[in-house]
Amino acid sequence: MIIGILALQGDYSLHAKILDNYNVNNILIKKPSELSHIDGLIIPGGESTVILKLLDKFNFNEGLRDFSNKKHIYGTCAGAIVMSHCTDDNLKTLNFINIKSFRNFWGRQINSFTDNIKLTFVNKPFNAHFIRAPKLLCQGSELEVLAIYKNESVLIRNEKHLVSSFHPEMTNDFTIHEYFISMIKNEI
After folding, report:
1. Which of 45, 60, 125, 180 has a CA that sits 20 to 30 A from residue 96's CA?
2. What is the pTM of this model?
3. What is the pLDDT of residue 147?
4. Catalytic one among 86, 129, 169, 177?
5. What confidence score (pLDDT) does residue 52 get?
6. Contact status, residue 154 vs residue 148, Cβ threshold 8 Å
7. Given the DSSP bridges, would you call strands 99-102 and 85-86 parallel, antiparallel or unpaired?
8. 169 among known catalytic residues
9. Mean predicted confidence (pLDDT) in 146-171
10. pLDDT tens digits, one per residue of 61-84
11. Selected catalytic residue, list 77, 86, 161, 177
């Protein structure tokens, strides 16, 4: 199994580092043609507007749409915004998961924070980093909420995709990445 990490902008190197630390084969994806070499894709946090512009500039949209219909994608923070339907009219997001996102819901950069959240699939707290984090609002019954923080859904999945408001790559805790990998393994 090979996990791809979209490497156009954002914190892709931290995702590569945590996957490397747990001996998970991964490659940085910089061209649409590279999508055919991977079993799952991570769209990292960063700046959602920039990521969307770069996806358009480098002709990723059609390839990503095909990929999303067949394989798993995990979006963290800005990656979650890219995958959702964003309430910001200036953004043309991909709508891969039936979620409405609200940018910077938890505050600006200066309001970044770390706190423990409870995950539904493990019996230990996860130390989540929220940096200009979006609010993720479920829009369909096909969605499963895997973590809530202060009455807000912060980790959500559908059959193929996973999104989080926070940045699990900023920890040494492999729990969320491992969960995403288990989603892929269940399909292979």
Report:
1. 125
2. 0.94
3. 95
4. 169
5. 93
6. yes
7. parallel
8. yes
9. 95
10. 999 999 999 999 999 999 999 999
11. 77
